[in-house]
Amino acid sequence: MEGTMGVESSAGQGSTFWVEFPRTEAPSLFEDMSQEIAAPNAIATGRLHTLLYIEDNLSNLRLIERLMERRPQINLVAAAEGLAGLKMAREHRPDLILLDVNLPDMGGHEVLVRLRGDPACASIPVIVISADATRGQIDRLKSAGASEYLTKPLDVRQFLDVLDRTLLTGAAG
Questions:
Q1: Which residues contact 68 (CB under 8 A, 6 or more apart)?
Q2: Does the pTM exceed 0.85?
């Protein structure tokens, strides 16, 4: 590894420590997976799909946006709050909803319960994406109607498999 480190110290004044590394480009998550990220033929030749992502974390949204660049047949729409997500679900009638659990205005569980209670949205598959990997949380959301529960950090291959299967069959199970 290239770089330098050092220290400057003055008696009674304190010390300054530093580390310098040469700047390098970060490896791309997508370069190594380009063939695996390609959409299955059945989806690539099918109709345009709408995917609603209810997520307040911009970096998580950006990751899904990057993945969807490889899925031109998927129109991604997003909401940063639960109430806005519920409204968009009614307006857009997406083919699939990705749902975060920790939203600023209401919990993902409440969003899911409201989706399942709304005749216009009740049959839309919902994939929960959360950092909470506890068995109790997973069971609670699946019992409330989540089709799948994926944990963060997101396994890209698993996510795309679930996404493609859901869009092909209309159900995530």
A1: 51, 74, 76
A2: no
Q: How far apart are the C-alpha atoms of 30 and 165, rounded to whole Å?
A: 20
- Distance from C-alpha of 163 to C-alpha of 172, rounded to nearest angstrom: 8
**Rounded CA separation 130/146 (Å):** 12
Q: Quick check: helix, strand or coil at residue 71?
A: coil
Distance CA 123, CA 95 (A): 9
User: What are 134-155's pLDDT values in tens digits?
Assistant: 999 999 999 999 999 999 999 9
Q: Is 81 helix (H, G, I), strand (E, B) or coil?
A: coil
Instruction: Provide the 8-state DSSP code for 170.
Output: S
CATH class of 34-169: alpha beta
